[in-house]
Amino acid sequence: MPVALITGASAGLGLALAKALAGRGWSLVIDARGEEALGRAHAELAKLTDVVAIPGDVADPAHRRELAAAAGKLDLLVNNASALGPSPLPRLADYPLDEWERVYRVDVLAPLGLIQATLPALAGGIVVNVSSDAAVEAYEGWGGYGSAKAALDQVTAILGAEHPDLAVYAFDPGDMRTEMHQRAFPGEDISDRPEPESVVPALLDLIANRPASGRYRAQELVK
Known about the structure:
This protein is α/β, with parallel strands linked by helices. Helix content is 43%, strand content 15%. The protein has 8 helices and 7 strands. It is globular and about 50 Å long.
C-alpha cells in the first residue's frame, strides 16, 4: 500500500486529495493546526484507509520530525499547508514584518524542512509543493504570500535538479473556494470559485503519470 504525507489536510485541497487517495488504496499521514477539524477529517478518512492524524504547526521542527517518523517509507509528500498573511491583504509598504516572517516560515522554510526530514524515506518518490498563480503574477496586496510561493517554486525547481531520482512538482491549482481564499477577500462573495474537489483530478494525473519535474498548472493537466 503506497503511503502519502499531506499537510494542511483538514479542509480544502488537502482533504479533497486525501479522500481521493484513500479511495485508491493509499495509506495516509495527515496534519493540520486545528485539532478539532483534523479529528473530523481523520474520522472520515479512517472509514476508507489506514490514516494517522497528527495535529501541529508545520513551522515547528519537532512537529515535522513527528510527521516524518509516522510516515516511515514514503511514496508521496504533499506540502499543502500555507499561511496567507494578514487579512485584509496589506500593500508592501504597510506589511507588518513579523507577519511577513511568519508567512515565509510556513510557506517556504517548513516545506523545505519537511522535505529534508523525509528525504531518506522518499527514494524514487514524489514531492508536490502546492503553489499559486500569485507566485508568477503581480497582484496588489499579495506580496507576502506571492513572493513566498515564488521562493517555494524555486526551491522545487532546484530540488528537482539536485534529485533526478525524485519527481518534484510545484502545483498551481488556480482559484478555489476555500477558507483561505475567503480570508483574502473578506466580505466578498467567492461562490463563483471552483470547489477544491474539481482540482483533484489534475493532481491525481500529475501523480500517476510522473512527467518531468517542474511547475504545472491544474488547468493544463486535465482538459
